[in-house]
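FAD-dependent oxidoreductase 2 FAD-binding domain-containing protein structure dump, as promised
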Amino acid sequence: MSEAAPIRPIPADQVGEWAYEADVVVAGFGVAGAAAAVGAAQSGADVLVLERTGGWGGAAAMAGGFIYMGGGTPVQKACGFEDSVDDMKAFMKAALGPGTDDAKIDVYCEGSVDHYHWLADECGVPFKMSFWGEPGWEPPADDGLQYSGGENSAPFSTTIRPAPRGHIPQMQNKRESAERGGGYMLMKPLTDKAAELGVRSEYDMRVQALIVDADGRVVGLRAKQYGKDVDVRARRGVVLATGSFAYNNQMLESFAPKMVNRPAASIEEHDGRAIQMAQAIGADLAHMDAAEVAYFCDPQLFTRGILVNGRGQRYINEDTYPGRVGQATLYENQNQSFVVIDEAAYEEGASRPTATPELRHRPTWVAETVEELEAEMGLPAGALQSTVEVYNRHAEQGVDPLFGKKAEWVKPIGTPIAAIDMRGLTGGFTLGGLRTSVDSEVLHVTGDPIPGLFAAGRCTAGVCAGGYASGASLGDGSFFGRRAGISAAKN
Ligand SMILES: Cc1cc2nc3c(=O)[nH]c(=O)nc-3n(C[C@H](O)[C@H](O)[C@H](O)COP(=O)(O)OP(=O)(O)OC[C@H]3O[C@@H](n4cnc5c(N)ncnc54)[C@H](O)[C@@H]3O)c2cc1C
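structure tokens r here:
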């Protein structure tokens, strides 16, 4: 590490002058930082947020806006869905593992309806009481609810009562201005609320290292502002909320090598710095190999076809959450994937509304028979033919005994037939980070909380340990961010 940016903790007695001071100092003004700031200010603390860029927002303000909430929220009820805390827990523990932090999932689910009311009623985040039920990464318009984790498809739907839990803040001009989508409509009210509560913010302030007193307590942060080192004192606590390590190739090589050079749905400020700063004082880590993996194709297309790997074999039910498709493609199928679809199904899918027209790829190969298509794709003779023959044999009866795709999407594949080359078309962001308690205290490798240090968002390991559901990131970032602020304020 260069001398210009020391990552080692700085002893408090070496600080000459405190340039800024507050009860609670928050690093990063994305979703976790904003929720922490509001939580701390509502608990009576004087709060200062330090943000590296020129404004609030982070990845969150660019996000589609899914927030994973359930257990019977007003939107779920208004849209006619029954949900319970137990069903939500069961789904999250099954889908977001293996190795989930069950204590975290328990408090997250038990507090979810309250979290909804905090966001909607106290912070003013708008939610429209309407449901989008077609395949897609996001709703194409301003609907407030969608299945966002594969709850209503195999392998979960038969054992856990499904409910949609992807809540999206109501957005305006989504088509005209994607930047003002659901994520913006989460961040604008949250940061307005922070300002209303008197939260101060300093921009162009790049946090570099923790300041620690002689007892090992975190009492501040050193940051670089306009090329100068400045020291910021935190009277009660520091909250780290600077995002993932999706843009730190060295950390990716060490912890999540399949994600090297594959960042998506993140921003280049996600450089893992906060994780390393806390590691330097003994912080523990969790789930550093986990990642959200997007599959860059419009689900309106591939749900109506089949997905095959580099050997021409199906590998997943195509009606599941597209993030599960991404993980299965990258982790289990060497990032080799093709969408195989007949002309009628392609035309139907392409005519349906979508939030992601840019992912509606034209076919790479088109053929009159499966045999011809297989040859054009360069697959061994018979590989794709046997896949399509088996699929069609069962599809005639409307079933998919191999992967359990729902009957509504199971139709024999006819001709003309096409394939879209999806090899290599995945990307995403890391889910691992600092190990924290349910109250967002950063835990030392001994298991004890590090005095004065709290964290939330993608610099921490949240509710996802391996699997992912859309909304889990803005969900746990806002939920545990708020708790981080409250804990720091009470510290
Ligand atoms: C296009 C897109 C779509 C997405 N859709 C969804 C979705 O629908 N649902 C969902 O749950 N997630 C979604 N995500 C992911 C989600 O936005 C992030 O995972 C989430 O914002 C992480 O929260 P965070 O607070 O940890 O990080 P951020 O929201 O990115 O905030 C981190 C902040 O810290 C700042 N920072 C970084 N380093 C420093 C430093 N050294 N000093 C000071 N400040 C620093 C950054 O500039 C940033 O403002 C999407 C992301 C993108 C880009």
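The two ends are 32 Å apart (CA to CA).
lmk if u need the other ones
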